[in-house]
Amino acid sequence: MPRTKTCNELLSLFSKLNRTWVLYAEMFRLKIKSSANEFLGFMEILGIKPTVVTYNTIIHGFCLRGRVGGAQMIFSAMKGRGVQPDSYTYGLLINGMCKERRLDEASGLFDKMLEIWLLPSAVTYNTLIDHYCNNGDLNRAFGYRDEMVKKGIMPTVSTYNLLIHELFMEGRVSEADCMVQEMEEKGMVPDAITYNILINGYCRSGNAKKASILRDEMLSKGIEPTKETYTSLIYVLSKRKRMKEADDLFEKILRQGVLPDLVMFNALIDGHCANGSMERAFSLLREMDKMNVHPDEVTYNTLMQGRCRARKVEEARKLLDEMKRRGIKPDYISYNALISGHSKRGDMNDAFKVRGEMLSIGFNPTLLTYNALIKGLCKNQEGDLAQGLLKDMVSRGITPDDSTYYSLIEGIENVEEFLRKGDSLSLSRCVLYFQL
Q1: CA-to-CA separations, 176 to 143, 162, 165, 205, in angstroms, rounded
Q2: Residue 121 CB partners (closer than 8 Å, separation 6+)
Q3: Of 380, 381, 398, 382, which is closest to residue 390 (Cα–Cα)?
Q4: 362 phi and psi, to 5 degrees?
Q5: Read out DSSP for 3-60?
């Protein structure tokens, strides 16, 4: 990065060539010590009138720094000095507003842009589509896609990537397939991002076969799979209990010289814990340490849940202590794992002790906390205490679910009397009882 002194020497030279504004604007964009007001004032002293390019450079600099308010001030100043903003100016501001989640303002500015007959670029449309997708508003996102087509602006691969990704996120797989087909019909070549979105999407929907076919297609086209690609494949193989294939893929990644990251390790550890292969899960934790990949609370929560499933709650507790020694802060999931483990064994005193510990450090009990405790109490034939917990959870604004009521109905001796009291039991819950 050039020093201020270097830039000043260049400014002196450039001033003789009437090109000072170019360097000064670049200094501002690169965050080298200077200010927009200094820059504009310096230009006026030299008798150089700032152009739309000058203002765009400064606005870009403000937006890069996350100072959209400053960019808006420059925007007003340029109009006040008779310099008309162009489509690039509007695009910069719209992007900056979207990053600050000011979508309504961004949309309003976009409409003003259209009112003065400026044609937005595909990049500006993609910016709006991206942020409306992230906001879960696919209708608005598709609306902008349709509008750009009407104006003769061809959607790009990025446009399709954004929409396909959000369709997968919402579980609308068949519509995502149609978008892929539409891309192919328009002669667009999927890029690495497209393939990663598709592989991740099919993995989320449980279609391991389709995901593997796409991985092979990537390779055949010379597109190198990324860590995200492999992580998605490991995830779906793990969910399908195909752990040997997941391990084989992991070993293949290592042979290729790809360093696994935290997310990949967590996906593989989760699969082994879910399938009861705790020895392999802990060997992966040791591999993480060797590769200097630091575990997080997700890693330890997964291991704790695996231990608790095997009714080894004491060992799960040791993992909680190990987390703290490593400087990893346990979260409510960590404590819920222990509460659930103790409750499954019927060790309700220990379960309530963990809940007390959880409350003492500021974590409020969740639905999972109450369900685990109620199930444990009912298993121990302590229905009255379970009913008390039900009232407590409702008073805290936590809505019981089917699991709560299943546990209560199984654990309460006089169900008819309980139903007559109407302790927050709906008609559907009564029907559930009679089905049982």
Answers
A1: 16, 11, 8, 12
A2: 87, 88, 91, 153
A3: 398
A4: 100, 5
A5: -HHHHHHHHHHHHHTT-HHHHHHHHHHTT-S--HHHHHHHHHHTTPPP-HHHHHHHHH
CA angle 28, 29, 32 (to 5 degrees): 50
Give CA 133 to chain center in angstroms. Answer: 12
Lookup: tokens for 401: 């679910």
**What's the pLDDT score for residue 421?**
53
Find the mean pLDDT for residues 246-267: 91
Of residues 224 and 159, the one with the higher pLDDT is 159
C-alpha closest to that of 198 among 226, 165, 230: 165
Contact 272, 281 (CB under 8 A): yes
CA 322, distance to chain mean position in Å, is 27
Q: Which residue has the higher pLDDT, 414 or 166?
A: 166
C-alpha 181/C-alpha 211 separation (Å) is 16
pLDDT in tens, 196-226: 899 888 888 888 888 888 888 888 888 888 8
The whole-angstrom distance between residue 400's C-alpha and the CA centroid of its chain comes to 28
Determine, yes or no, domain membership for 323: no
Average pLDDT over residues 178-187: 90
Contact in structure between 93 and 59 (CB atoms under 8 Å) = yes
Per the structure, the complete domain to which residue 372 belongs is given by 365-436
Q: How far apart are CA 51 and CA 43, in angstroms?
A: 11
- Say if 42 falls within a structural domain: no
CA distance 29 to 23: 10
Alpha-carbon torsion, ordered 164, 170, 173, 176, to 10 deg: -20
Residue with tokens 């087509």: 149
12-16, 132-136, 312-316, 374-378: the lowest-pLDDT one: 12-16
DSSP 136: T
Nearest by Cα to 194 from 218, 219, 175: 218
Distance from the first to the final alpha carbon of the chain: 72
- Domain membership of residue 30 (yes or no) is no
Look at the pTM and tell me if it is higher than 0.70: no
The verdict on residue 54 lying in a domain is no
Domain count, the chain: 1
What local confidence, expressed as pLDDT, does residue 419 receive?
Answer: 53
CB atoms within 10 A of CB 300: 25
